[in-house]
Amino acid sequence: GPVIEASYRRFLALFDAALCTRPFILGDRPGAADFGVYGQLTQLALFDPTPAALALAEAPRCVAWVDRMEDLSGLEPEDTDWISADPLPAPQRALLGEVGRVHAPFLLANAAAIAGGAEQVECSIDGKPWRQAPFPYQAKCLAALRGQYAALAGAERRAVDAALAGTGCEVLFAS
Fold it and tell me: Which tens digit of pLDDT belongs to each residue from 111-167?
């Protein structure tokens, strides 16, 4: 629908901008974020004709990135390949902002629907009503994220909080 297409277009533009600064989301090596995005973009940018044509027309760098992720042979990652999160660069903050705008409200509503045994997830995404069947796996993913966040202490927790502040993603970890 229109909500998903608008988010896909925004994501492609934001991701393209991030790829202008670094070859991967968080630096010069792939991380968990890259593999998560890769899992989605392989379908959208390579196989499904409509979103693939959109990606090629609007963000060919993203399509090339999917191809690069397909074969990372020869890449020798170093611990120094990560960007500094203090402060998190604008392109990465913008990507988190899109996640906070679209995915965070769904994750919270989905977890509540699963916990309450509801047959429908109902929430507002990007200011528009959204309804769909709940996804148990995504509730499990949110629980895993919350578990990893809870395990952070001191400076690590403060760094994550600072990176997420104002992105909309911080609501995923609110008490």
Answer: 999 999 999 999 999 889 999 999 999 999 999 999 999 999 999 999 999 999 999
Distance CA 131, CA 10 (A): 21
- Separation between Cα atoms, residue 16 and residue 73, nearest integer Å: 23
Alpha helix (H) ranges present in the chain? Answer: 2-19, 32-41, 49-58, 60-70, 90-98, 104-116, 136-150, 154-164
Q: What are phi and psi of 128, to 5 degrees?
A: -125, 145
Task: State how far Cα 14 lies from the chain centre.
Answer: 11
- The Cα–Cα gap between 162 and 113 comes to 29
Cα atoms found within 13 Å of the Cα of residue 43, Cβ hemisphere only: 5
- The DSSP bridge partners found for residue 24 are 27
Residue recorded with tokens 């679209």: 102
Distances (CA, A) of 72 to 69, 78, 123: 6, 14, 38
Token pair listed for 127: 């200011």
Task: List beta partners, residue 124.
Answer: 129
φ, ψ dihedrals at 120, nearest 5°: -135, 140
Task: State if pTM tops 0.85.
Answer: yes
Q: Are 104 and 169 in contact (CB under 8 A)?
A: yes
